[in-house]
C-alpha cells in the first residue's frame, strides 16, 4: 500500500489573499468606485505587486514590525503617485479596508466547510487577526482558528508563522498541510517540514497570465477547494 | 434616551469553563469512567477548586509559564493523592484531555450563533488554543476567534489577556464585553475598561450551592446565552 499524501495530517493552514479570496475583483472594484477614470485593474495589480517586497523588508529587518494595513497604506500611496492620483485620507482608508471584504472564490466557503469535517481548518495569512475575521464574517469562512501575522509579529515566508501555528496546535510541522496558490509560500512551508497543497487560481490576476502554476514537489495539486476536499476524502 | 449597556460594543469575549460548558458533568463523568468506586463529583469539585490557585501562582511569578494541561496534570495528581488513588499515566492523560470535550450548556451553541449575527464572538479562556479548538469542534461553538492563554502567555485575570484581545481586534477595551459566570473574571475585565455580562450557571458545581451570583456592577445580567442574545437585540 502506498502512503496517502495526507496520512497524519491534522491541520490545514490556508493562505487567504488569492487562495480563498479573489483580491483582483475586490480591489479593482474598490479602486473603480473610489477613483473614477483610471485603469482600475492595472492599479490593483500594481498595488498587489508591491505587497511581497514590502513584507520582505520587514522580515529582513530593514523596517520594524508594522501591521499589514500600515504597509498597504504606504504601498497604496506609492502606486497613487505612480498613477498621478492624489488620494484623500478617506479614500486611502477605504481602499486599505477593502482588503477585508474581498470576495471569496465560489468554492471557498463550501470547500472549507467540507474540509472542516476531517481537519482543523485555519487561516494562515499575512493579514491581521482583525482583518481576517472581517474577511471570514463577510464570506462565511468557518475557520476553526484565525492565524493572523500579528500573533507572531512575522510575515510569511518566515518560519515563525508556519511553525508557530503547528506549536499552537501541539502538532509536528508534518501534521500541518499548507494550502496556497503561491508556490513560494508552499516551498517555504515544505522547507520547515509542512505538507503542501497547491490550489489553481488561474484568474488570480484578473485574467493576466499567472506563471505560478504549482510544482511537482507539492503533496497535492487541486483545481479548487472542493476538488481538494474530494482528494482528501472529505 | 438612556444609553444601552451595549452601545459601542463590537466584540464579545466568552469565558469557557463554566460559562459556555458544563465542566462538572464532563469531568465527573470522566472520573467515574476512569476511576471506579470513587465519589466522582467530589473528586471533580476538588480538582476544579485547585484551578484558580495554581494559575495565580503562575501570574504571581512563583512558577514560570506553563500550559493549562501541564498545570491540570499537577493538580490532578494532588487530588488523586488526597483521595488515595494511584493514577496510571494513561488515566492521567485521559482525564486532563477530558477538559477538551466537556459538554456545552444546551443554550451555548445556539446562543453564540445568534450573538455572532451582531458581534464578533471570541473565546477568552485560560485553556490553550488547541484545547479550546477541540472544545469548539466538539460542541459546535462557532467562534470568530479562539483566544487561548498561550497567545499571551498569561492567565486571567491578568490584564494582558483582556487588553490583548482588544488590541488584536483593534478596538478600545470599552468596545469589548466580557461574558462570564465568575464575578472575579468580570471584575478584572471591568477594571481594565471592558463591559461585563454575568451569566447565571446555578448548576456549575453540580448542584452544590454556588455563591457567585453576579454583582450589580455588571452591565448585563443574563440567565443564559439565549437570554443574553435577547437582551442584546440579537
TrEMBL record, chains A, B:
Leader peptide range in chain numbering: none
GO molecular function, one term: hydrolase activity, acting on acid halide bonds, in C-halide compounds
InterPro entries found in the cross-reference section: 2-HAD (IPR006328), HAD-like_sf (IPR036412), HAD-SF_hydro_IA (IPR006439), HAD_sf (IPR023214), PGP-like_dom2 (IPR023198), S-2-haloacid_dehalogenase (IPR051540)
Annotated SUPFAM superfamilies: HAD-like
Lineage: superkingdom: Bacteria
Keywords, in A-Z order: Hydrolase
Family per record: Belongs to the HAD-like hydrolase superfamily. S-2-haloalkanoic acid dehalogenase family.
Name of this protein: Haloacid dehalogenase type II
Native source organism of the sequence: Gordonia aquimaris
